[in-house]
Design brief:
single chain, mainly alpha, Growth Hormone, Chain: A, globular, transmembrane, membrane, lactose binding, MFS_trans_sf
């Protein structure tokens, strides 16, 4: 089997999982609004996913490292996705939506992280760029947002479960055909995990990225409602995500050409500056087409930030703990940030509107960028990364 052929199931998994992900990210807030929930209540539901992430990511990552398999954990999680998504979408009261949402997200949230961890390991095995494999996730996300946005605009957002299950079943079929990782080491033990907690640069870096990722996650949750506030519909929400993720796919695809030019922290800082500019421009938007036009900045912010942060974290953590370390990184990026972004965003968009929310997000990104620049200049920020390369 050639190298290209051996990565096809992995690329298809990333494509199909991120196609399901876009349906939840793009349209769940509108679905919950259809069910009669307020902006603040929608914030509660959207915070449940990140809350589950904080527990689910390290749990599944630890099992993956302990039993030296990503493939089997992925298959279990995708089966959980299919079963509990059906139950989640049956719920009608805030309490039952929150309860079943927690179980649903417990299985769903690790899939992206484990898929990326597997892609990163396969890329280093084959001597290829992680971005060229990961770009298939972005293509799946972009395709799904455009097509499903148009479909739901015609049939109604209440039917979003059907395309979700369709892509979920494809993800399961290709996950069964995945090539698993080869780890030449003893199984990971709990005391090994202490090494991550005692790794100061790792912990400080995770704290500092919060200032930038909170805004990113708040945008994930509320861009759909913001586009609607400005007079848009489901098709325009889908188009906004398509433009954003198409630019992200391009950034990932060409990563091999630009990524090694500077230290990853330089790219994190550049992305932080672009994030702050992006949010301030969104804040003054008075038409949904303005937000959609600016969505190309998603690739230059998230695309660059995520690749650089993921690469930097991979340098900071020992090989034995790669899955666990990656999932702890995901817990902070998508979990802690997601809880704060969803709760804060829901309350702000309810009380003051989207403009105020985006202004505050821009301010947070500036603070995070300043801290990250100081972290890069201080000696420990770089030395550990270079030593463990």
């Amino acid at each position: 089997m050639s190298n290209t052929e051996s990565t096809i199931p992995l690329k298809m998994l990333l494509f199909s999982f991120h196609a399901t992900n876009t349906i939840i990210l793009s349209f769940l807030p509108l679905y919950l609004q259809y069910k009669g929930l307020s902006g603040t209540e929608i914030g509660y539901v959207l915070a449940i996913g990140p809350l589950a992430t904080i527990f689910a990511q390290p749990f599944w990552g630890y099992l993956s490292d302990k039993y030296k398999t990503i493939k089997r954990i992925l298959v279990i999680c995708i089966i959980g996705l299919l079963i509990f998504s059906v139950l989640f979408f049956q719920m009608n009261t805030l309490f039952t939506i929150l309860l079943m949402g927690a179980v649903f997200y417990f299985f769903v949230t690790p899939i992206g992280a484990l898929g990326d961890s597997l892609a990163q390991r396969r890329a280093s095995e084959l001597g290829t760029s992680f971005g060229t494999i990961r770009t298939w996730g972005s293509i799946g996300f972009a395709t799904s947002s455009l097509v499903i946005g148009s479909i739901l605009n015609n049939v109604g957002v209440q039917y979003m479960i059907w395309p979700y299950l369709f892509f979920g079943f494809i993800a399961l079929l290709v996950a069964i055909r995945l090539k698993d990782v080869n780890v030449e080491s003893d199984p990971v033990k709990f005391k090994d995990v202490e090494k991550l907690i005692k790794n100061k640069p790792f912990v400080i870096f995770l704290f500092l990225i919060l200032f930038i990722t909170i805004g990113h996650r708040a945008n994930d949750s509320f861009i759909g409602l913001y586009v609607e506030q400005l007079g848009g519909n489901e098709a325009l929400v889908g188009l906004a995500w398509f433009v954003g993720v198409a630019s992200e796919a391009a950034v990932f695809f060409f990563a091999g050409y630009w990524f090694k030019k500077f230290h990853p922290l330089v790219f994190v800082i550049i992305a932080g500056i672009l994030y702050s500019l992006r949010w301030f421009m969104y804040a003054v938007a008075d038409d949904p087409s303005f937000v959609i036009a600016l969505q190309f900045l998603h690739g230059l912010t998230f695309g660059i930030f995520y690749l650089a942060a993921f690469d930097y974290v991979s340098r900071l953590i020992p090989k034995l703990l790669q899955s666990t370390g990656h999932l702890v990184f995901f817990s902070v990026f998508f979990g802690v940030s997601g809880i704060i972004g969803s709760l804060m965003g829901g309350a702000l968009i309810d009380s003051f509107g989207g403009g105020t929310l985006y202004t505050i997000m821009g301010g947070l990104a500036i603070v995070g960028t300043i801290f990250m620049t100081l972290y890069h200049v201080l000696p420990f920020g770089k030395t550990v990364a270079q030593e463990s390369q």
